[in-house]
Here is the input.
Amino acid sequence: MPTRATAAVLRDADGPYAIEPLDLADPGPGELVVRIAGAGFCHTDLLGRAPGGRVPKPVVLGHEGAGTVEAAGPGVAIAPGTPVVLSFDSCGACADCRDARPGACAQMAARNMFAMPLDGEPRLTDASGGAVHNRWFGQSSFATHALATVANTVPVDDDLPLELLGPLGCGMQTGAGSVLISLGVRAGDGIAVFGAGAVGLAAVMAAHLAGATRIAAVDLNPARLDLARGLGATHALNGADPDLLRQLKAITGGAGFEHALDTTAVPEVVATAVAALRTTGTCGLVGVGARPYTLDPGLMLSGRTVRGIIEGDAVPQRFIPKLIELWRQGRFPFDRLVATYPLADIGRAEADALAGEVVKPVLIP
Here is the structure.
C-alpha cells in the first residue's frame, strides 16, 4: 500500500510552495521509506527555482532530512524503527565510490540533481493522480515521508534529537569535511573561510577542532561574523572592505594562509581567496555559481592549488557519526546555527534564509 504523505510541493519555479497530500510508492529493492522528523533548508534547494533549470515540476525538494525508517524494500538490512540521517545518493559501484569518494560518483548528477529516480518514473502522486517529482538528492525530504536508498541512509543512535540532525547530511558535512578531509587542516595551520553561512560556519568549527591557530571568517553580515567568533574564528573581516586582502595577509605576517575555503561562488571573492594563500596553499571551492572564475596566472604558477570539493569528500556513513560524537562532546555545536519552522511555514523559512536572518532553517513536518 502506498504511504500517505504531506509535502511542500513546488509547482512553478517562481511560485509559492503548496502543502499537499501525496501518495508515496512502496519502497523497491534497496529503498526505504523514512518518516521525516526534520529537514534542513539549504541554499542548494534554491536550484529548484532556477529559471530554465533541469529540475522538473511539480517537485518536492529538501535534501537534509532525518527521521525514522517506516518501511524497507527487498534487500535492505536497515530495520523499520531505526533512526537515520539522510545524505546525498551515490551508486556505490563506480571507481570513485569504490575509492571512498561517493561525492565524485559517476552518477552524482543523475542521482541527486534532477529529482528523478533512475528509471524515470516519479514515485509520488497528488490528489488528482498526477505525478510529482521526487528523489531530490535521493530523498525529497520537505515532507512527512521520504523515499531514500541504503547508499544515502545513515543509521544513528536512538537517543538523539532527530529533528535537528538533518543538516549533518549536507551543509555541515560539506563544511566540516572540506576542512578535515579535503584540505587536511592541521594544528598550527591558518585558514580563511569566505562566507559565514551554514557551510562556512561548519568549516570554522572544524578548523577550531583541528587546532588551526589562525581562522579568518569573511562575510558581509556583522551578526554572522560575531557568530563565527563565538565558534572559533580568531579573526572576522568584512568582505566589502577594499583593504580586505591586505588585512588577510597581515594576519599571517605577510606569508599568506595555508588554506582557504570559498562558499560564495562569487568570482571576485574566489580571486581574493586565492591571492590570500601562501605560495603552496590550497583553496577549496564548494559554492555553485553562474559566472566563470578569473585567476591571476602568476599566483597559480608560483605553486598555489585550486580544487573543487563535493560534500567535503566525506563518506556519510563514516563521517556523520563522527560529527554527532563531536556534538555530544560539545566540540561541534552545529545546533547553535539552527532555527526551526513548521513545514507549513516553508515560505517564511526560505525568505528568512535569503535575508540572512537565520543560518540554518529546519522544517518540522
